[in-house]
Write a structure and sequence with these properties.
With about 500 residues, the chain is α+β, with helices and mostly antiparallel strands.
Length: about 500
């Protein structure tokens, strides 16, 4: 129970000293460093610290009545709200106690181990600063031990992070080189495609040409004529052999002095041969021409209307043809973009063009993949992973804690999850940033009829990564406390213990 200070004890606020203008005074509740601010002038007056226009007799300081708006006239009583009471705590650590707890009948040892906050004597508070100092020293030793171990572990993390960063730098350089090679490959593939398209467009009767059918028909006609020629040649050879035999026989049996039977027989055989072969006497020219049209292969009108046949480009140097091809392509694209020309319908293409397109597409795909990988590596390289890039070394490492109903897991630089005893994990958030001693995870799974889950991780120094606690202070907003060597600082030199008791 808090007890109100009695008026009888107010005179003790000055610790028994007389107020003399020439003699320094000591004001209760004020630190040694600030005592000079409470010295009266030659007339024994004093002004409020933040209102120098308000001047009071020094006797009204610590009179349990709040005269100054800032409460500076009551550092040793509970009269002014918001004021602070100084506890010297000799032999331990000095501290400030809210003035509302001064002379309230409770010994506030956790702040004023010397018991000076109950100076009015309502209760007797022993000076326990030696005990607190001993316990404090033990805790500080443990803290220093933890800091030393954590600092050593952190040094290893920093070294690992530096190695990872160097590896990223090397990978970026390699990717840039590969991208340059890939772009050269693209340029070469595009040039090869352009040449293939130009050469393809200069051919006579390319696939898709309206004259291709006529060309095939003419070829078939001449094939038939050639076949007829071969057959007729064979017939002529047979006839020639028969004629040779007849003539040979006639030459052997013929007598020029008179008309004998040998001549008659030869003449008769010749007549019979002629009568047995109705086609005898025909010439091959008549047979061949009957199988083929004697008109020209293509009319001038056909050639004029078909741009795929004997184009003028085929007579130009290759570099001129490439330039003309580029200009025609640009003109067509210009007209198509403005609706002045319909897009060319896809038609058959030569094997060389198809192969060139395949090579170009493969080169462009490889280039896109390399650039995407380069961008991801560059993003990782530029990311903020805390001082000395230390949290980079923790990538892929996860820690968890079983709270009974749920198991919570934090994966550094990645995600935070919650998993029940049955069912799959629920994502509490994706790694967002590190700011000071906190790590933030955002945009987790959406709560039913609520916001997306998120988590804040408060970190402090520890030899190993460990989750200390987890709570849900607001719906779908999670708060973790963890220890990690990444937050450890270099231990300060051990200070000598105070011995003022």
């Amino acid at each position: 129970m808090r007890i109100t200070i009695s008026a009888v004890t107010l005179v003790l606020a000055y610790t028994g000293q007389e107020v003399l203008a020439a003699k320094p005074v000591h004001i209760r509740g004020v630190s040694e460093a600030d005592q000079a601010l409470y010295q009266p002038d030659e007339n024994g007056n004093w002004a409020c610290l933040n209102r120098p226009d308000i001047v009071l007799p020094i006797s009204r300081v610590n009179d349990d009545y709040c005269d100054c708006p800032d409460g500076s006239d009551e550092p040793g009583t509970s009269a002014c709200p918001g004021a602070k009471f100084y506890c010297a705590n000799k032999g331990h650590v000095a501290a400030f106690l809210p003035s509302s707890r001064v002379n309230d009948g409770v010994c506030d040892y956790e702040i004023c181990c010397d018991g000076s906050d109950e100076w009015a004597g309502i209760v007797k508070c022993e000076n326990k600063c030696r005990e607190f100092a001993t316990e404090y020293a033990k805790k500080q030793a443990e803290i220093r031990k933890t800091q030393a171990a954590g600092w050593s572990a952190r040094a290893k993390l920093v070294a690992k992070a530096a190695g990872m960063r160097q590896a990223l730098e090397k990978e970026l350089g390699q990717l840039e080189t590969q991208i340059a090679v890939s772009e050269a490959r693209i340029a070469k593939a595009r040039e090869a495609l352009k040449i293939a398209e130009v050469q393809s467009s200069s051919r006579v009767g390319t696939k898709g040409s309206p004259l291709l059918g006529r060309v095939k028909a003419r070829i078939e006609q001449y094939q038939k004529a050639t076949k007829a020629l071969t057959e007729h040649t064979s017939i002529l050879e047979t006839r020639l052999e028969l004629a040779q035999e007849i003539l040979q026989k006639l030459s052997e049996e013929y007598n020029p002095n008179y008309n004998d039977e040998g001549v008659k027989a030869a003449v008769k055989a010749y007549q019979e041969f002629k009568e047995s072969d109705p086609g005898y006497g025909d010439f091959f020219h008549d047979i061949a021409i009957s199988e083929a049209d004697d008109e020209e292969l293509f009319s001038e009108e056909e050639i004029d209307v078909d741009p795929d046949v004997v184009e003028y480009e085929s007579y130009l140097p290759l570099d001129w043809r490439l330039w003309i091809h580029d200009q025609k392509t640009k003109l067509r694209e210009f007209l198509v973009d403005r609706g002045l020309l319909a897009e060319r319908k896809p038609s058959g293409e030569t094997a060389s063009v198809a192969h060139a397109k395949k090579e170009r597409d493969a080169a462009e795909t490889q280039n896109r993949e390399l650039k995407s990988k380069r961008d991801n590596v560059a993003k990782d390289y530029a990311a903020n992973f805390g001082d000395d890039d230390v949290f980079r070394a923790l990538a892929g490492e996860c820690i968890d804690i079983d709270s009974g109903e749920f198991t919570y897991e934090i994966c550094f630089n990645d995600k935070a999850t919650q998993k029940g005893k049955s069912g799959g994990p629920t994502r509490l958030g994706n790694f967002d940033k590190i700011d000071g001693g906190k790590m933030y995870f955002t945009n987790g799974a959406k709560c039913w009829n609520g916001p997306h889950r998120s988590a804040v991780i408060e970190m402090q120094c520890g030899e190993k990564n460990k989750i200390l606690s987890v709570s849900e202070p607001a719906m779908c907003e999670y708060f973790f406390k963890i220890v990690t060597p990444a937050l450890c600082t270099k231990p300060e030199a051990e200070s000598k213990p105070k011995d003022e008791l």
